[in-house]
Write a structure and sequence with these properties.
The mean pLDDT is 89. The strands form four sheets. A five-stranded parallel β-sheet has the order 4-3-9-10-11, with helices on one face. Strands 6-5-7-8 form a four-stranded parallel β-sheet, sandwiched between helices. 30% of the residues lie in helices and 18% in strands. It has 328 residues and is of the alpha/beta class. Helix 2 runs parallel beside helix 9, helix 3 crosses helix 8 and helix 6 packs parallel to helix 8. The chain has two domains: 142 residues; 127 residues, Cobalt-precorrin-4 Transmethylase, domain 1 (3-Layer(aba) Sandwich). The two termini are 34 Å apart.
Length: 328
């Protein structure tokens, strides 16, 4: 088949400028998309499948980046009490989400950042989870490694006090007319996530009361799952904090182990006792997904030629007995 223009389903950027052929080869340099597309079009994916009996109790299920139909299935299972649904996210992501829930936030779309920001501050390495982010934002960011509470407090004081002797980062942030702070999944030092998130959120809110515009952006892979679960159940999904029975999709760095992983890339036995390949939205079937800045829903078109069919996540969950008491 000729290369197809698609929306990439594999990271929260969901780039819409990709061309992919039947072998999963892309027209752009992205390590995540290249690996994931190659795995998705593999004609004979290897399963490490163990027979799971129908569940006798509530199944602990973890997920993060899922499509609209997958999110609806999981929300339905949550609503009927068949699963305990949690989100795979890092301590930084969880702390930032909690701080924003308490204090609020001034955010922006990636388009706004690209158009208006004259200084972009990357807290931590965003390219590990979103390799093309700076290409998509169209800038050369000021990048710092993971930051702790004391370092951030000193930096905020330098900016707020008008100190004249500041480091390079402080000078860059002080010069900003429109500052975009983009937080990576591992932005805050271990053990200091809660305090650091609180300081950063409040600093951004305070900077907007001065003569500059400041926005805080964190791209959430689970934006679709959180939205659909909220619509269906009025519940806020908690973070995964221990081993689970089932995981949907590829585990994040630092994830807890699962008895069964459905879909994604096989991480091996330390993180998945059993693994079953599954159909991928945007490759094996058409669907939709919300971009990580939670502002736009994007279509995921099916690659119609050269891709072997696979069971969907719902079909695999049904084989495990989870839909036995629901309508199919």
């Amino acid at each position: 088949m000729n290369p197809l223009a698609i929306v990439c389903p594999f990271c929260p950027l969901h780039c819409d400028d990709l061309l992919v052929d039947k072998d999963g080869e892309l027209n752009v340099a992205c390590s995540i998309a290249s690996q994931a597309f190659a795995a998705a079009v593999e004609p004979n994916p290897i399963a490490r499948e163990a027979v799971m009996p129908p569940p006798s109790g509530v199944v602990r299920l973890a997920a993060s980046q899922v499509s609209l139909s997958e999110a609806r299935d999981l929300a339905g299972l949550l609503r009927t009490g068949r699963i305990e649904l949690t989100v795979d996210e890092t301590p930084t992501q969880a702390a930032l989400r909690a701080a924003i829930a308490r204090d609020g936030n001034i955010s922006a779309t990636l388009g706004d950042v690209r158009k208006h920001a004259n200084v972009v501050w990357s807290v931590g390495d965003c390219t590990a989870s979103m390799p093309r982010i700076w290409e998509r934002v169209g800038c050369d960011p000021v990048i710092v490694d993971a930051i702790g509470a004391n370092e951030l407090a000193d930096l905020v004081y330098e900016i707020d006090s008008g100190a004249t002797q500041v480091d390079t980062l402080g000078n860059a942030l002080k010069s900003a007319k429109y500052l975009a702070v983009i937080v990576s999944p591992s932005a805050f030092r271990s053990g200091e996530e809660t305090v650091t998130a609180e300081l950063l959120v409040r600093a951004v809110l305070r900077w907007n009361q001065a003569s500059r515009r400041a926005v805080l952006v964190s791209l959430d892979p689970a934006a679709m799952l959180r939205s659909v679960a909220g619509w269906h159940t009025n519940l806020r999904l908690p973070r995964t904090t221990g081993p689970v029975d089932v995981r949907m999709g590829t585990p994040i760095t630092g994830a807890y182990p699962a008895e069964l992983q459905i879909g994604g890339i096989d991480p091996g036995t330390p993180l998945a006792a059993s693994y079953v390949p599954a159909a991928v939205a945007g490759v094996h079937f058409a669907d939709a997904i919300i971009r990580g800045d939670a502002t736009v829903t994007l279509p995921l078109d099916k690659i119609t030629a050269g891709v072997n069919e696979r069971r969907s996540g719902r079909e695999i969950l049904d084989a495990c007995g989870l839909f036995g008491m629901n309508e199919k």
